[in-house]
Amino acid sequence: MKPDTKAQIDSWTEPQPQKGKKAGRPRLREKRPTVRVGRPAGQRASQLELQEFMYSHPKKKKVVEEMMRAALDPEHKNQGIAWKLLMDRMLPISGFEKLAGKSAIQININTLDSSAVEIEGETIESVEEDAETA
User: Fold this and answer.
1) Which stretches of the chain score pLDDT less than 50?
2) Is the pTM of this model over 0.85?
């Protein structure tokens, strides 16, 4: 053995842990904020409570009658709003989209000279109908 190596071995001592620190992974100093997705907490419960209140209110029919009266009166200042509210509730667009079963395809092509070319086509009813006619 070289004399330098023997001196190093003789002078070696067990490493002492530092005070206040533990071995292992360090802790996070501050919590990262969590990003919540969806409705705020308690919103669904308050919506259900309001819905229950409206359904159980004794004058609910009068409110509907006033809304219909405003929609049918051409001189009423809020006739258009009454129409929109009633039609959104009675005939939602999503119901018609489901019944139609139509899908539209729109393709936008941008060229280098930054002029957009739009290609329009016909709406495809369904694949099965096209196969039957062919």
Assistant:
1) 130
2) no
